[in-house]
Task: inverse folding
């Protein structure tokens, strides 16, 4: 139960941060009459919000899924991919802040190949 509690706390902090970010962006949007940079940042906010909503939704019975893939590395591979995606999001945010071009990690292709192979077994 401790991991679920920790996850709930982290989710609460993330939600508070997202809400504060939205308020700041909307206030800034009113103040600078929709400057391009603010509009672009607001777009990034909505992307982050969408990712969070999709990641935190629980449309699947995870216990059943775990039982089904008990002798497979599918769940491990998905966990690895989600971790890589989180790191990519952090890298993208750094690139946005520093106004540098973002280079997508070429290891994603290999991760998807491994997931496909695990699903076919």
Result:
């Amino acid at each position: 139960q401790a991991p679920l509690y920790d996850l709930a706390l982290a989710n609460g902090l993330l939600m508070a941060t997202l809400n504060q970010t939205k308020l700041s962006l909307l206030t800034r949007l009113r103040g600078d009459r929709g400057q391009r940079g603010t509009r672009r940042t607001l777009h990034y906010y909505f992307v982050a919000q969408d990712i969070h909503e999709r990641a935190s939704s629980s449309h699947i019975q995870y216990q059943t899924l775990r039982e089904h893939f008990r002798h497979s590395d599918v769940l491990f591979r998905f966990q690895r991919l989600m971790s890589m995606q989180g790191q990519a999001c952090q890298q993208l945010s750094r690139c946005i802040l520093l106004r540098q071009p973002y280079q997508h990690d070429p290891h994603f292709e290999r991760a998807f190949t491994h997931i496909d192979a695990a699903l076919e077994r």
Notes: Residues 2-31 form the longest helix (30 residues). The chain has five helices and no strands. Helices lie at 2-31, 36-56, 62-68, 74-98, 107-120. The mean pLDDT is 84.
